[in-house]
Every structure is written in C-alpha cells, then in structure tokens.
C-alpha cells in the first residue's frame, strides 16, 4: 500500500478496492497467474492504479457468503487461494425452516460455497493486487472524475492523499479507462451516466438487514446456510462465518420499529429454531445492532446513449440485488471474468467505439447468470419473505402461507425439483427460463397442495351433517379454494414478469409512467408467448 502517487498515467484506474475492484486489478495486471486463460501469453497486460479511501480492514454485515458459482469465478481469475487461510467455513447447501418444519436443500454434485468475515476476504484480495506487477494500490480519496468538455469523455481522476505528516496533497491521474467500483452508494454513478438518464438509474430500497453475530450457536444443519421464515415479518438468514461465530441477518421493512431490540426479542427470536434462541437473545442484549439498507438496481447497457465514454461501472455501482440469496459477490466476480476477457482482447483502449462494442457483448454475455441471480433474489424475497402492512394484509399473509407450504412440499419431492432450484441459487446454472419453470412449478404445486391437504380435513369435518347440507357447503369450500388459487397464481405472475421485463429490456425509459407502462405491457407480451409455447409443447 502506498500513500504517494508513483506516476500520473495509467492504462486503467479503478475506484474502489472492494471485491470487484481488487479482483479486476489483479486479473488484468502484468502478473496474473491465470495460466489456463484461453488467450495465453499473448493476453494484454495493463498498468493499473487501484484507489481506495481506506485500506484498513472493512467491517460489513454482508458480503460474507460466496456461492459455488462465485468460487468457480474466483479460481478462473487465479484468486482461489484468497478463501484459504482466512478461517472460511464450507457451505454445503441450505436448511429452510418455518415453525416446526425444516427441509435440507443441498448443493448438487459436491459443490461447496464458503462463508467468512467480509474483511478477511477483502484483505486477501487486496494483498494479491498489491503483489501484482503493474498495479499500484493507492490509499486516497477520489474527489472527482476528469472529463473532457468537448467530448465528455472521462480521462482520469483527481484524488487527495496524505503524506507521512498527514499533510493533504491533490493528484491528477490520467487513464485510458476509469472503472467505477465504489459500491452501492456510489459517489460517481451519476457522473458516469448521461444526464438524461441519471435520474432514472437510482437504487430502490427494498428493506433493511439488521446484523448480529451469535457466539457458539448451533445451526439446525452444520455447514448449511439457514433461512427461517418468520410469520408476519421478513426472513432471517444465518450462516457460520468462523469457528464460534454465526452471522444472523434479520430482514425488516419500513417503517422500522422504534425499539428494535424489543421487536427482535418479542417477534423474531421466539420463531427461531430452539438451538438458536438463547444465543440470539444474548447477542441482542450484549451487541450493538448494525443496520444496512437492501437496495435493488437493474444493470444498464453501457454505451454512448446511457453512459459517458472512458468510464465503466462495475460491481454494486452498476448492478445490485437483494442480499437474501447471497449472490452479489458471485455476480461481481463473474462480471470481472468477462470484463477481463473483453479488455484483454481490445485492440486499442483509446478507441471508444471499439470499446463500446465490447461492452455491449459483455452486457449480453453476463445476462443469463446475472439476470437469474438478480430475479431469484427478489422472487424469493417477495414470495417467501416480504412482510406486508396494508389493509389487505390478511389476504397477502394467506397467499404467503400457501406459497411457503408449497415451497416446502416442492423441496421435499427431491431430485430435480431440489437440484434445479439450488443450482440457480448457487450460481451454477444460469437460465432465467429455468427460474421461470421452477418458480411457477412451486406456485402450481402450492395450489395442488392447497386442494389435496385441506379437502380431507374438510370432508371429515362435515361427514356428520345431512346430505342436503353437505353439497352446498362443499361447493362453497371448493369455490373458496379456487379463489385462493387464482390469487396465488396472480401473485406469482405479478412478482415474476415485471422483474423479467426489467432484466430483458436494454433501454432506460425516460419517464416513470412510461417505465411502468412498458413494464406491464412487456410482461403481458412475454406471458402470452410463454403460454403459447407451453400449449404447443403439450399438444
């Protein structure tokens, strides 16, 4: 690490030494150990400046679970050893819990994830970048992007450092490309975007995570992430991050409770598995509750119409999903793999027209995996976790209850029903249409369970009544089930298709009204096409 700026001209300047920034700096450096890369020794190497405002160990409550798909990307980048020697815990799948019910959802084919303290992983990535030839890791605050007035091209950054005596100094670093990877609360996202679209590209806050660390807690299934469906509230996510330490994340929607500790102790802790209640209560009493927003931001195609030349958005500065599924680092690392390949093949970094063509290919090449993980995060959150607080809460709670039961029963079927679903979550499979099949499979199976599980109990209840009264009551009962089924299917469509439309469109509507109209119009069009395909396939 250095506080001085050794030179003023680079091929690439990267703002942000987090997961994506550090990984990219190493991947495109002149000492990448990626010997299996298809471009071999002829691959391009660059002079890189990696700038971070503070190179001390970060302390966050997310970015602690790396899915198997993320580990594959990490190894592709030559960074596989970054999850060794940091106390990481193997993750072999999930345990889904609601009340007394629980079901194990293992990763397929021996795949494993890793969970760890976020700061340890980031420091391991920074160490690799620091030791790579061609990379200068600089502790500095980037104050602005340098933009040519005539062409609007981003040509560098201005940053502020402090010398050994803490005296501030301002530096100007020029670069052919500036990578903005400064996180979900990006300081420079708007400046990279064209003014006409800057207002439309804003993260949307879905909920908040409250983070705790439980001491010596015993998870229902060891080395498995645990998702607890909490009645009337958002989900709770738990996973072990080191020996003796288990992270607990509690989803809370606005408006936030005035007394958060009391809310957790009375509403959340009693619904946890018995082995977790005492450690959770102890942690609530003794620890400071940490809170972070859970934003969502759809990625945009980075070409001249949307973004200014010379700059590239990366990581959470570009694309954010709900952290419930732990897919953020997997998306970011796979993006780095594709961006590395694109930059290495570039003939001339100064030729932005050629670069735009590469960026467009990058955008579409990443789509299958990133879109699947992005949609899955909100699909699972909205369907199984979102707490509701409106006048129609009774109906929505009923829908959620039906969907959750269907989800449990779907997983209990085993085989491809579990394998296909968890492969999407793990980042191994990358197919939005596979997500569609399983998501609607859960919904349809929930309807089947609704009819088959309630009818016997109902018939047993009315067997002692007269035959003349049974028929009307049975008809009313089945009509009620039919109405509930329609609501469940409608809810499923209302969740999936707007998300699907957001992911497949490549333009940014200039007005929110146009965006809403286009979203639902596209959703209906896609729904009709899919319906026709299904009908044709079954005929």
Structural commentary:
This protein is α/β, with parallel strands linked by helices and 539 residues long. The chain has helices spanning 19-27, 68-76, 118-130, 189-192, 195-198, 260-268, 274-286, 328-345, 352-385, 393-412, 416-425, 432-462, 467-504, 512-538; strands spanning 9-15, 48-52, 65-66, 89-91, 93-98, 101-106, 113-115, 135-139, 141-147, 154-162, 168-180, 204-215, 225-228, 236-242, 245-252, 290-296, 311-313. It has three domains: 9-87 and 118-202 and 296-368, 3-Layer(bba) Sandwich (FAD/NAD(P)-binding domain), CATH 3.50.50; 204-295, Alpha-Beta Plaits, CATH 3.30.70; 378-538, no CATH class. The chain is 44% helix and 20% strand. A hairpin with a 2-residue loop joins strand 5 (93-98) and strand 6. Helix 8 runs antiparallel to helix 9 and helix 12 packs antiparallel against helix 13 (467-504). It is globular. Its main location: endoplasmic reticulum. Keywords: Endoplasmic reticulum, FAD, Flavoprotein, Membrane, Microsome, Oxidoreductase, Transmembrane, Transmembrane helix. It catalyses: squalene + reduced [NADPH--hemoprotein reductase] + O2 = (S)-2,3-epoxysqualene + oxidized [NADPH--hemoprotein reductase] + H2O + H(+). It is found in: Endoplasmic reticulum membrane; Microsome membrane.
How many structural domains in the coordinates?
3
Named CATH architecture of the largest domain: 3-Layer(bba) Sandwich
Main structural class: alpha/beta
Using the alpha-carbon principal axes, give the shape: globular
* The CATH superfamily title of the largest domain: FAD/NAD(P)-binding domain
The first-level CATH class of the largest domain is given as: Alpha Beta
Average pLDDT score: 86
How many DSSP E strands?
Answer: 17
Beta fraction of the residues?
15-25%
Largest sheet: 7 strands, mixed
CATH topology descriptor of the largest domain: FAD/NAD(P)-binding domain
What percent of the residues sit in helical stretches (DSSP H or I)? 40-55%
